[in-house]
Amino acid sequence: MEINLKGKKAIVTGGSGQLGRCIVRTLAQCGADVAIHYHKNSEKAEELAAELKAMGKKSGVFQADITKEQSIYDMRDKVYEQFGKPDIIINNAVIQYTWKNILEQDPADFFSQFESCVMHNIYMNQAFVPHLIEQQYGRIVVMNTECAALSDAGSAAYVAGKRGLDGIVRCLAKEIGKYNITVNQVAPGWTISDRARKEHTEVQPDYDRTVPLGHRGTDQDIANMVCFLASDLAAFTTGAYIPVCGGRVMPAI
Predict the structure, then answer these.
(1) Which domains occur in the chain, in start order?
(2) What stretch or stretches form a coiled coil here (predicted)?
């Protein structure tokens, strides 16, 4: 048994970012062609697309501001014209900001998280899902976070955005399941990516001791779950919130 995405086309928002790059590469390794969305990091996106083409996979880079509806629709039109119509949608992009306690947090940060978590997904769904309905098949995988379940002090803007996202995913899964489209969430913990490897900050004792498995997960751990949910191995899983955080979050029944 293997994760086989041969013949599938995927789009990854935030594909040029730390986690996005690993997701893009892993989708391609599983056989998918991948459209790479970026906001500002065109250089990384182009480098990644070149990697995929060297693997024999079709790729392309597409710019958009994921908080702006028209920008998403403009990107969709270019993706359809230059790359094709994706079967797999990976909504991974999010706006980064400095965490503070609620009483100190700039209200603009709450709006930015709502825009990049909730509205980002609404715009992507409204733009790309009609094709999935038309072809009676699709996979949507959305990036959430362990923070949505933990609600730690200082994370309120992020948590509010991701909890709103959770509601969107659950409703969407019920609305479009009849079209053979699954919608699931992957919820990473504090993940080791290229930046941490470069800075040699993989080990974080205070955090690691709170993880039942004893260490942080990697971007590859997250990408593996994304690809599983994007595949037909997960054809009967939808509406799920799946933590990939070493057991730090264990949703209860």
Answers:
(1) 9-190+218-244 (3.40.50.720)
(2) none
